[in-house]
């Protein structure tokens, strides 16, 4: 099942000069569970069709990439759970907010497709995690929050 994946996987994507990503990203403060607070209609009618309570869990792998586990519930908060595991990679250290995220069964196209354009303060929890993240693609946007 594919969700939290946006239509951009079916297009060749490069970071658009018109989309400014964050200049600094402390990966250790981005790790953990994120709760989706907004996504586009396209996303909701395709990859996340009938899913509610969608989350993304990020953890650092030994190779420096980020393990991504996107999950949700079918139709209701107590519905059948569904998830997919993928990988996020920072492509250029000079642009840490531009990542490429890949999932099984999706094209592994060049260029960034997960663009972090805004981060909240690092005041969430005992570890000082980012409070929120605004993420977009060259096509659409969604936002994530750390509070439940």
Order of helices and strands: EHEEEEEEEEE
- Sequence stretches where pLDDT stays below 50 over 5 or more residues: 1-16
Helical content (DSSP H or I, runs of 4+): under 10%
What is the SS-derived class? mainly beta
Q: Can you list the strand order of the major beta sheet?
A: 1-2-3-4-5-6-9-10
The DSSP helix count reads 1
Give the tally of β-strands.
10
Explain what the structure shows.
The protein has one helix spanning about 40-45, and strands at about 30-40, 50-60, 65-75, 80-90, 100, 115-120, 120-125, 130, 130-135, 140-145. The chain has about 150 residues and is mainly β. The two termini are about 25 Å apart. Residues about 1-15 have low confidence and may be disordered.
Secondary structure blueprint with pairings:
Blueprint: E1 32-38, H1 41-45, E2 51-60, E3 66-74, E4 81-90, E5 98-102, E6 114-119, E7 122-124, E8 129-130, E9 132-136, E10 141-145
Antiparallel strand pairs: 1-2, 1-10, 2-3, 3-4, 4-5, 5-6, 6-9, 7-8, 9-10
């Amino acid at each position: 099942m594919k969700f939290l994946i946006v239509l951009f996987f079916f297009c060749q994507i490069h970071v658009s000069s018109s989309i400014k990503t964050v200049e600094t990203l402390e990966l250790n403060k981005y790790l953990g569970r994120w709760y989706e607070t907004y996504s586009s209609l396209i996303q909701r009618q395709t990859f996340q069709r009938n899913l509610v309570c969608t989350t993304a869990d990020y953890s650092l792998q030994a190779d420096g990439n980020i393990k991504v586990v996107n999950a949700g519930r079918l139709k209701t908060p107590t519905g059948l759970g569904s998830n997919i595991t993928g990988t996020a990679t920072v492509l250029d250290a000079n642009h840490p907010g531009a990542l490429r995220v890949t999932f099984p069964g999706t094209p592994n196209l060049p260029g960034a497709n997960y663009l972090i354009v805004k981060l909240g303060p690092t005041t969430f929890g005992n570890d000082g995690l980012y409070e929120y993240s605004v993420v977009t693609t060259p096509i659409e946007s969604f936002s994530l929050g750390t509070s439940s």
